[in-house]
Amino acid sequence: MRADPKSEFRAGILLIFPALVAVIPFALILGAAAAQKGLSPFETGLMSALVFAGGSQFVAVDLWSFPAPWLALGFAALLVNLRYVLMSASIARKLKSFPIAGRALFIFFLADETWAMTEKRAAETPLTLWFLLGLVPVFYLNWVVFTIVGAVVGSAFQNPERLGFDFAFTAIFIGLALGFWQGPRTGFFIAASAAASALTYLFVDGPWYVMAGAIAGIIVAAIFPSAPLPLKEKADAQAARAEGGSVE
């Protein structure tokens, strides 16, 4: 069965729309912080366009000085972005029907939000090119545009705590995590990751807490794997996945 391009494109936009709204305060704060460090709106937008990784961009802006400590900036960004290795490995299995160039392009534009929405969609139906075109470019442009806006009107965001904008990053990730909720077992994994991240943050300098949380979650998931589906349910799930359509 061939997927309808218009409906797939629309599904991508509708699925990512709440995340578009949720990251706006986050993008505005980043742009404002970059402006306060002396970066121009053009430089801020260029950083968002080329790096496109909010967590590592915040770390980079926090460490920014003149002259820029390139080695420290690169290492900090590497630590924060190591989570994308795990995320890419997870989503790559759902993109096997795509050409290598298409997979590589999608991985380049991968973000926490697009990864979560793509995983959610892949659990329900095979991924299509039109769905990803509705999901990814609009999120990317939204991030770049609003970091530039934040850099332009940065003085209005010198005290984001007053408006509660400082909680935006935390709220986004809580929402993404709960989107994968499958009962108490999921809460156990989240608790293990949270504990490992918090302890590492308290006792180890640098952004090692990002990988600590990811590794803790993986270890717990490996120790307590999910129960296999009964044969009939497994067959039904495989049949459902076999339907759906091409990547065109």
UniProtKB/TrEMBL annotation:
Pfam families: AzlC (PF03591). Keywords: Cell membrane, Membrane, Transmembrane, Transmembrane helix, Transport. The keyword Transmembrane applies. Its main location: membrane. The chain crosses the membrane at residues 12-34, 71-92, 129-157, 163-181, 188-204, 210-231. It is a multi-pass membrane protein. One of its GO terms (cellular component) is plasma membrane. The keyword Transmembrane applies. One of its GO terms (biological process) is L-valine transmembrane transport. It comes from the Bacteria. It is found in: Cell membrane. Belongs to the AzlC family. PANTHER family: INNER MEMBRANE PROTEIN YGAZ. This is Branched-chain amino acid ABC transporter permease. It comes from Terrihabitans soli.
